[in-house]
Amino acid sequence: GSYIDWESRLQDGKVTRRGCKRNRKCLVCHHCLRVTQRLIPHILIPNLFVLRDCLPFDPSVTSLEPLYQTYRATVITKEIRRQTVGTIPLPTPGQSTLWQDIPGVRDSGVLETLSPEQCKYQESMFEVLTSEASYLRSLRVLTEHFLDSRDLDEALIIRDRKTLFSNVLRVREVSERFLKDLEDRMDEGLVFSDICDIIHYHAQHNFPAYIDYVRNQIYQEKTYTSLMKTNVAFATVITRLQESPQCQRLPFMSFLLLPFQRITRIKMLIENILKRTKEGTTEEQTASKALDSVSKIIEECNTQVGKMKQVEELIHLSKTLEFDKLKAIPIISQTRFLEKRGEVQEMAKGGNLFNLRPKFTPVYLFLFNDLLIIATKKGSERFVVMDHAHRSLVQVQPIREDQALSPSYEHCFCLTLLENHQGRMIERLMKASSQSDLHRWIAVFPNPGNHDGDQEEVIYDDWGE
Q1: Which candidate, 321, 329, 316, 332, places its Cα nearest to that of 384?
Q2: 37 φ, ψ to 5°?
Q3: Any idea where the domains of the chain sit in the sequence?
Q4: Which residues does the UniProt record annotate as the domain PH (predicted)?
Q5: What is the pTM of this model?
Q6: In CATH, which of 2.60.120.330, 1.20.900.10, 3.40.190.10, 3.90.1150.10 is domain 62-315?
Q7: What is the DSSP string of 252-275?
């Protein structure tokens, strides 16, 4: 490892000379002595001796971790080599560190005192630390190499820069604090007591920063794609920055996607720890709490991503729908989402079930959670709204077999608007493209003959305002 100036640490009062059972002058860290209270084989430092267990955790161990995008593959490769070849040399830059590879662990003799399962338990906790170090290394490339680039800053307007990088500086700060707490725990002894209490604390107080970042991810991707097509200066700078050795030929977008990948990976790491924790112990309870708190963060991330996608879809639809002869209603709403859309055929006005050759014209149905819109197509991506009604004021029923006097009426259903945009009841005869499509349309509407529902339906008077 790196050279430690123990003489200066003596002068600073961080360590002190003290006799031990072997009558040697030892340097003993006050904090470690208080925690461990045990003697482990000595190592020689110029003219001095120091207790092995009193050496603090050397952060340079985790500085060897690869970028997070390649971290998992490196861990798997190294473990395969360990199992097939046996002991392997110390890691070199770009390789992941295993707990058993730490010089202090290998030299202390502690591996001989632990069972294989106990060693795996230690490795499962240590992987949280090494993977966080790898993740933080990639975040620093994103912030220091890309975000702090003067050329990139000049190629972006403030709005696009904010959309691309979101709150990544806050996310990096969260990672730095988390890693420091993990390293401090490693400082207390070579064998981990527990780390899930640390994860649980950060999930409650710091990890919510991931929710804000992930919520913005859909706009990140769209902005990046648009800039690469329309902003030549941006595309040129990004291409040059990606070619830097710091990036290891990894694309810019792979760095932007890291936070959501990380929070989901932490959940998997906790599950691995929990699997190796003894049942009925305090450690099991702590691991369960950590898993629950991180799962809630991920669940909220997914919820926010879903909401953002729904809003994006509504924005797109609002641009394609035209209220030509009707009073326009707002399409975009935080609580609205599209459930189903598709083309059906409507029987022309004046037609009835007794016509042997009825005339059908194509119409499009847009079914939202609180609204049904009936429209005709105008061009490739435009629709003219013909009618609309609140979702709770719409009923669908298939026509009876004895009503269909011609094969032309196959797959037909009656669409009833109890109150349309004019406040009138309207019945429309629709024809689905197939039997399965007919079943799907009927399934998304409540059965008017079913009055046994457990939940009373609420109709809102202000739904169209």
Answers
A1: 321
A2: 50, 40
A3: 6-56, 62-315, 323-443
A4: 346-450
A5: 0.68
A6: 1.20.900.10
A7: HHHHHTHHHHHHHHHHHHHHHHHH
Give the count of beta carbons closer than 10 Å to the beta carbon of residue 329: 15
Q: What is the pLDDT along the chain (465 residues), one digit of tens a residue?
A: 333 444 444 444 444 443 333 333 334 333 333 333 333 333 333 333 333 344 445 555 555 678 888 876 666 565 555 555 444 444 444 455 788 888 888 888 888 888 999 999 999 999 999 999 999 999 999 999 999 999 999 999 999 999 999 999 999 999 999 999 999 998 888 888 899 999 999 999 999 999 999 999 889 999 999 999 999 999 999 999 999 999 988 999 999 999 999 999 999 999 999 999 999 999 999 999 999 999 999 999 999 888 888 888 998 999 999 998 899 999 988 889 999 999 999 987 655 555 556 788 999 999 999 999 999 998 888 999 999 999 999 999 888 766 655 677 788 899 999 999 999 999 999 999 898 999 999 898 866 555 444 444 443 334 444
Cα Rg, the chain, nearest whole Å:
32
In this structure, which topology does domain 323-443 adopt according to CATH?
Answer: PH-domain like (2.30.29)
Residue with tokens 């709770």: 392
Which tokens sit at 38? 């045990």
Say yes or no: do domains 62-315 and 323-443 share a fold.
Answer: no
- The answer to whether the CB of 267 falls within 8 A of the CB of 298 is yes
Residue 264: other Cβ atoms inside 10 A: 16
Classify the C-alpha dihedral 399-400-402-406 as positive or negative: positive
Residue 188 backbone dihedrals phi, psi, to 5 degrees:
-75, -20
CB < 8 Å & 24+ apart, contacts of 342-351: 342/437, 342/441, 343/377, 343/433, 344/430, 344/431, 344/432, 344/433, 344/441, 345/430, 345/431, 346/428, 346/429, 346/430, 346/431, 347/412, 347/428, 347/429, 347/430, 347/431, 351/429
